[in-house]
Design a protein that fits this description.
heterodimer; A: 453 residues; alpha/beta; five-stranded parallel sheet; 20 helices; extended; B: 230 residues; Rossmann fold; Helicase, Ruva Protein, domain 3; 8 helices
Chain lengths: 453, 230
C-alpha cells in the first residue's frame, strides 16, 4: 500500500502546483492497515485539510488507485489527533473523526456523517438571522436540541433560495454534534421518489422501509415534489406515522404551506399540519447586506457597506443569486488586482445583471424613438420627409446601428425598405450633428439610456 | 463575360475551437477561468451568456476539448439533457443553451446541481441572457444564478478587423484593409456572419477567377442578403 502511496504522491506532485501539493497533499499521512490491502486510510493534520482533500483531491486519489490496482480501492479520510487539550471536550476515537465548525466541536463518526449527506458548511453559526427567518430559526434550534420532543414534524416553507435547505442542514449538523450516534439523513424529495421507484422495480420494499426506519432524524427537502406521486405518498405516509410514533424527528421543507400543496393527499396534509409550521420570508435589505458581509467574511475578505448595499439593492428575491453576485464581484477584483470599490462592483455586476446588453430589437428602437418625439411608429417606415419626422427616423437608424448587430441593408429594410446608403447617410448625419448640436446630442444620449435599461 | 465557372474542391482550413483561437478582447478573465475548469481539481460552477454569434458554443467546445484528457467530461446541448444524466465523480458537465432545456432536462440538471457537492462535479453552462432573465424553473434558475456569471463581451471593431484578417490569412486570402473596413461598416456586426461573408467572398473569387475586390464583395453581400430573405 505504501508503494502505491509513493507512486500517487509523485504523480500528484507533477500534476499540482508546488503550493497546492505542499499544503494539501504532503501533509497527509498514510495509516497502515496491514490486513486489508484494498483499503487506504489517509490522515490529515486537521479538519481543514481533510475537508479540502475530500472536496478537491479524493476523486483523483481514487482514480489513481484504480489505475494502480486495476480495481477500486476504498479510500477513507481521518484527522490525526495531536491536540490532547481539545479532546477533553469530547470522546474521540483517533483517526476516525472530524469536527464540525462553530462552537460545537464535538467529534462525530466520519463514515456515518458521510452517509447523512449533510453539508458541514451549513450550520446555525453561518446562518444570518433577521426578521424574515428568526421564527424559523428559533423553531429549528429548538428541534435540533430536543429532536422528536418539541414539534413533530417541523414544517418550514418559503420561496426559492431563502435558506430552507441551510436550516435543514443546520439542524442535522447540530444533532450530529450533540449525539454522534444519531443516524441522520438529509435528502431531497426527488431522491425519496427515486428510492420508492427503485424499491418498486427491485421489489425491495422491506429493505427500503428498514433503511428509513433505522433513522433518528429525517430531513426532507422540497416536499412539493411529491405532487401526483401516489405510491411515494403512500410509502411516506406509513414511514411518517412510524417515525412520529417512535418519537423520531422529521423536518420538512416546502415552497408553500401544507394546505396549499398541489397534488398531495389530504391525510398527508393533515399530518404535516399537526406539528409546527413556520415561514421563511424574503430577506429585507438590511438582512441581505448582513448576509453579504457574512459570506465575504467567510472568504476572509472585507466588503464595504457601500458595495454590500449596491449588490443587495440589485438582487432582491433570493439569497442564492445574492451569493452569485458577490462571488462575481470578488472574482473580478481578484483578477484585476483591485480593491473592492463601488466602481469595481458596478463593473463586475454588469455580467450578473446584464443591464447594458439586453436583447435590443429594431422594433424597440423604433417604438422608443417614436414615443420620445411623439410621432407615430408608422412614420418610421413612411416616406414623409419633413424634418420633424425625418430627423427622429435618422436618429433611430443610427441607434439601431450602434445597439443591434443588424447590417445596414437590414436596417434599411426595417425602415420602410430603404436603401442601405440611406442608412449610411443617416448615421453620418447624426454623428456629425452630435458634435455640433447639444440638444440633439442630449436627446440621443437619453434615448440610448432608455433603450439600454 | 461568361467564363466557365471554376469547380471548387470544398477544402476549408480546419478550425477546431480552442481557447487559443478565441480572440480574447475584454474576456481575458473569463478565458483564464475556463482554462482552470479543465483541471481535475476545479470545482467551479460557471455560467456564461451573450447573444447568438458571441462565441458561446466555441468556448464550450474548447473547454470540452481541453478537459477531455484530464477529467471525465460530458458536453451536451440542451436537447441532449434528459432524465438520466450520469457523470463520473470529479467530472465536468457542460450544457449549452440552458434556456432550451425541456422539463425533464431541467429536472435532471437540478438534481445534478444538488449532487455536485457530494460527487465533486464542475459545471459549465451557457445561455443567451443573464440568469435572472432565464425562463426556467425557479429552483434551477436561482442555482444557475449562484454560479460565477460571465457576460461574453463583444469585440470592438478593431478586434473584429484583426480576427477577420486572421481568418482570411488562414484561407490563404489576401484581404485589402479598405475591403475589411467596408465589410465592418456595411455588414452585420457579429463575427460569425462577417466570417461567413469572407468565406463566401473567397469561394466566389475562386469560382469566378476574380480577385476579391469591392465590387465582388458588394455582389456577395447582396446575394447573402437575398438568400436570407428567402
Amino acid at each position: 500500500m505504501s508503494d502505491f502511496w509513493s507512486t500517487c504522491l509523485s504523480h500528484l506532485e507533477r500534476e499540482l502546483s508546488t503550493q497546492q501539493f505542499n499544503t494539501w497533499i504532503k501533509a497527509l499521512k498514510i495509516e497502515d492497515e496491514g490486513e486489508s490491502p484494498r483499503r487506504l486510510r489517509l490522515m490529515a493534520p486537521n479538519r481543514f485539510v481533510l475537508q479540502r482533500v475530500r472536496e478537491r483531491y479524493l476523486n483523483q486519489i481514487e482514480a489513481l488507485s484504480r489505475q494502480y490496482y486495476g480495481e477500486p480501492v476504498n479510500v477513507t479520510l481521518g484527522v490525526l489527533e495531536t491536540e490532547p487539550a481539545e479532546s477533553k471536550q469530547a470522546e474521540t476515537t483517533p483517526g476516525n473523526t472530524i469536527k464540525l465548525g462553530g462552537s460545537n466541536s464535538t467529534a462525530i463518526d466520519n463514515a456515518a456523517y458521510e452517509r447523512s449527506r449533510l453539508n458541514p458548511a451549513f450550520t446555525f453559526d453561518t446562518l444570518v438571522t433577521g426578521r424574515a427567518n428568526d421564527l424559523a430559526r428559533a423553531a429549528a434550534q429548538q428541534v435540533a436540541t430536543n429532536p422528536g420532543v418539541s414539534y413533530n414534524p417541523l414544517f418550514v416553507y418559503g420561496g426559492v433560495g431563502l435558506g430552507k435547505t441551510h436550516l435543514l442542514h443546520a439542524i442535522g449538523n447540530t444533532v450530529c454534534a450533540n449525539n454522534p450516534q444519531a443516524v441522520v439523513r438529509y435528502l431531497h424529495a426527488e431522491d425519496y421518489v427515486s428510492d420508492v421507484v427503485r424499491a418498486y422495480h427491485q421489489r425491495s420494499f422491506d429493505s427500503f422501509k428498514q433503511s428509513y426506519r433505522s433513522l433518528d432524524l429525517l430531513l426532507i427537502d422540497d416536499i412539493q415534489f411529491f405532487n401526483g406521486k401516489d405510491r411515494t405518498q403512500e410509502e411516506f405516509f406509513y414511514a411518517f406515522n412510524a417515525f412520529v410514533e417512535a418519537k423520531k424527528q422529521i423536518v420538512i421543507t416546502c415552497d408553500t404551506y401544507p394546505k396549499d400543496i398541489q397534488g398531495l393527499e389530504d391525510r398527508l396534509i393533515s399530518r404535516f399540519d399537526c406539528g409546527l409550521t413556520v415561514q421563511i420570508e424574503p430577506p429585507e435589505l438590511e438582512m441581505r447586506v448582513a448576509i453579504l458581509k457574512k459570506k465575504a467574511e467567510v472568504s476572509n475578505i472585507e466588503v464595504g457597506d457601500d458595495v454590500a448595499f449596491l449588490i443587495a439593492k440589485n438582487l432582491r428575491s433570493n439569497v442564492r443569486e445574492l451569493e452569485g453576485a458577490l462571488n462575481r464581484v470578488l472574482a473580478f477584483a481578484r483578477f484585476h488586482g483591485n480593491d473592492i470599490t463601488i466602481d469595481v462592483a458596478k463593473e463586475a455586476l454588469k455580467d450578473v445583471l446584464g443591464a447594458t446588453n439586453r436583447q435590443i430589437t429594431l422594433d424597440l428602437v423604433q417604438k422608443t424613438v417614436a414615443d420620445y418625439y411623439k410621432i407615430k411608429v408608422a412614420d418610421m417606415y413612411s416616406h414623409k420627409r419633413t424634418r420633424a419626422i425625418a430627423r427622429p427616423r435618422q436618429i433611430a437608424m443610427w441607434i439601431a446601428r450602434e445597439l443591434t448587430s443588424h447590417s445596414l441593408p437590414e436596417i434599411g429594410e426595417a425602415f420602410g425598405g430603404r436603401d442601405h446608403t440611406t442608412v449610411l447617410h443617416a448615421c453620418r448625419t447624426i454623428l456629425d450633428l452630435r458634435s455640433r448640436d447639444n440638444l440633439l446630442n442630449n436627446d440621443v444620449h437619453v434615448l440610448m439610456q432608455t433603450i439600454k435599461s | 463575360m461568361n467564363l466557365p465557372r471554376q469547380q471548387l474542391l470544398d477544402l476549408k482550413p480546419e478550425q477546431i475551437p480552442s481557447l487559443e483561437n478565441f480572440i480574447p478582447g475584454r474576456n481575458r478573465e473569463l478565458l483564464g477561468r475556463l482554462k482552470a475548469m479543465a483541471r481535475p481539481d476545479s470545482l467551479d460552477a460557471v455560467y456564461l451568456w451573450g447573444p447568438p454569434g458571441c462565441g458561446r458554443s466555441h468556448l464550450l467546445v474548447a473547454v470540452a476539448n481541453l478537459a477531455e484528457e484530464r477529467r471525465p467530461c460530458l458536453a451536451l446541448t440542451a436537447a441532449q439533457v434528459d432524465d438520466g444524466l450520469h457523470l463520473a465523480p470529479g467530472g465536468l458537465l457542460i450544457v449549452d443553451d440552458v434556456h432550451e432545456l425541456t422539463d425533464a432536462g431541467q429536472s435532471s440538471l437540478f438534481k445534478t446541481f444538488n449532487a455536485a457537492r457530494l460527487t465533486g462535479l464542475s459545471m459549465l453552462m451557457s445561455g443567451p441572457v443573464p440568469p435572472r432573465e432565464l425562463q426556467l424553473r425557479e429552483d434551477l434558475r436561482t442555482r444557475i444564478g449562484q454560479a460565477l456569471i460571465f457576460e461574453i463581451k463583444p469585440l470592438t471593431d478593431e478586434e473584429k478587423s484583426a480576427a477577420l484578417q486572421r481568418h482570411a490569412l488562414m484561407r490563404g486570402m489576401r484581404m485589402d484593409e479598405g475591403l475589411l473596413q467596408y465589410l465592418l461598416r456595411h455588414g452585420r456586426r457579429d463575427l460569425p456572419s462577417l466570417m461567413n461573408v469572407l468565406d463566401t467572398l473567397d469561394n466566389a473569387s475562386l469560382e469566378q477567377q476574380r480577385p476579391p475586390t469591392l465590387p465582388l464583395l458588394r455582389e456577395v453581400m447582396q446575394s447573402i442578403l437575398e438568400l436570407d430573405k428567402e
